[in-house]
């Protein structure tokens, strides 16, 4: 039987590591409806389980109509200060970007109290200009993605890996979507979430009133996952002004619907100015927007691998090696790994194509080909061949 929720253990473990570090604001960012509010409730329950009194925890959803009066910065500050007591307070503030001037509120709380502060937001700008200006060196950011394949299986109580993987590719990873739903219902919900993001996280916030053009740009990005894209290519394809295309691309990524993978010159050891690749945060939303994944399953699984590498904490770039390309160069903690993604490498020509870039990186770092193949797996000339489903479930 499917569960109502799945415990987001990895994110809870990250938050727990920073518990009571009152000089750091913990900020969780992620696309709207990816599970941030549920994570805050799960963390609240974990705090109580670990001995924190319920009266010391103040979990405020700033999307809720009942908290509309707290969207004024001064009112929010006064409300939070009224909750401070001798016992340490824990402030869990959900969708903080809804409060104009929220930065001043949090800055003042850091100065005036020893409260333990946690924020969520649906806009990547929380990680850049606003944080850099007001909370330099006093915040830690956690990027939250929708469900991993393992979490998806658990939430939907799915046993068969192959069948579950097909469902994961089709209906996506948003926690609100269930395998038990009809495809039409699932896609209707995903379409509504997309519209909510377009209106509230992009159009209103960025004052972009041409929603029709915004929708066209998003659909173009959905159709071109894994392909090099720039403002100029969007401009030419959609016949819109180049500056407009670039501003829409930036805004869509700020809303965390897409993530950018920059291209890295492996020989020159530098980020290239050539067009980046862009991967969508949820495959279900893509399928709901432009049709089923089955026509281009190779790019779909490439998208899933990129997201999983992000989920595991890697900094991910596309590697350029002469005229060859490494799908993903993944760095974490001073360690580097190289990944190629291919539906199959059983065909000799495909095997040569996928192996050649990795063979050129004989620097002692892990080299992996992720494939849907179930035969021919193992290590050949230092290059691992791993089934993608096994890899997704390996952590």
UniProtKB/TrEMBL annotation:
The AAA domain, residue ranges: 25-152
Instruction: Tell me the superkingdom of the source.
Output: Archaea
Checking InterPro entries in the record gives: AAA_14 (IPR041682), DUF4143 (IPR025420), P-loop_NTPase (IPR027417)
- DUF4143 domain: residues covered: 200-340
Tell me one Pfam family matched here.
DUF4143
Q: Can you say what this protein is called?
A: Archaeal ATPase
Organism of this sequence: Candidatus Methanoplasma termitum
């Amino acid at each position: 039987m499917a569960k109502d929720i799945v415990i987001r253990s990895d994110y809870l473990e990250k938050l727990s590591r920073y518990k009571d570090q009152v000089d750091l604001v913990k900020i969780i960012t992620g696309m709207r409806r990816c599970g941030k509010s549920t994570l805050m409730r799960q963390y609240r329950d974990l705090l109580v389980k670990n001995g924190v009194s319920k009266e010391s925890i103040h979990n405020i959803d700033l999307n809720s109509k009942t908290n509309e009066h707290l969207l004024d910065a001064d009112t929010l500050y006064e409300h939070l200060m009224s909750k401070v007591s001798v016992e340490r307070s824990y402030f869990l503030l959900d969708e903080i970007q809804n409060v104009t001037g929220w930065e001043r509120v949090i800055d003042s709380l850091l100065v005036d109290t020893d409260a333990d502060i946690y924020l969520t937001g649906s806009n990547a700008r929380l990680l850049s200009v606003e944080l850099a200006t007001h909370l330099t060196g006093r915040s830690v950011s956690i990027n939250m993605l929708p469900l991993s394949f393992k979490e998806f299986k658990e939430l939907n109580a799915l046993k068969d890996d192959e069948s579950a993987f097909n469902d994961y590719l089709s209906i996506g990873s948003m926690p609100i979507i269930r395998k038990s739903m009809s495809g039409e219902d699932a896609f209707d919900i995903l379409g509504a979430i997309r519209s909510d993001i377009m209106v509230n996280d992009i159009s209103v916030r960025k004052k972009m009133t041409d929603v029709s053009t915004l929708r066209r740009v998003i659909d173009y990005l959905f159709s071109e996952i894994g392909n090099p894209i720039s403002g100029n290519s969007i401009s030419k394809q959609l016949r819109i002004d180049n500056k407009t295309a670039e501003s829409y691309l930036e805004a869509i990524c700020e809303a965390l619907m897409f993530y950018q993978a920059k291209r890295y010159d492996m020989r020159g050891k530098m980020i290239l100015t050539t067009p980046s690749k862009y991967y969508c945060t949820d495959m279900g939303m893509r399928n709901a927007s432009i049709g089923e994944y089955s026509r281009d399953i190779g790019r779909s699984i490439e998208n899933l691998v990129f997201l999983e590498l992000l989920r595991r904490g890697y900094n991910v770039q596309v590697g350029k090696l002469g005229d060859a390309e490494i799908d993903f160069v993944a760095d974490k903690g001073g360690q580097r790994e190289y990944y190629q993604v291919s539906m199959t490498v059983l065909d000799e020509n495909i095997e040569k194509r996928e192996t050649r870039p990795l063979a050129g990186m004989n620097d002692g770092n892990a080299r992996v080909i992720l494939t849907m193949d179930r035969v021919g797996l193992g290590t050949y000339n230092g290059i691992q061949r791993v089934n993608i489903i096994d890899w997704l479930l390996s952590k």
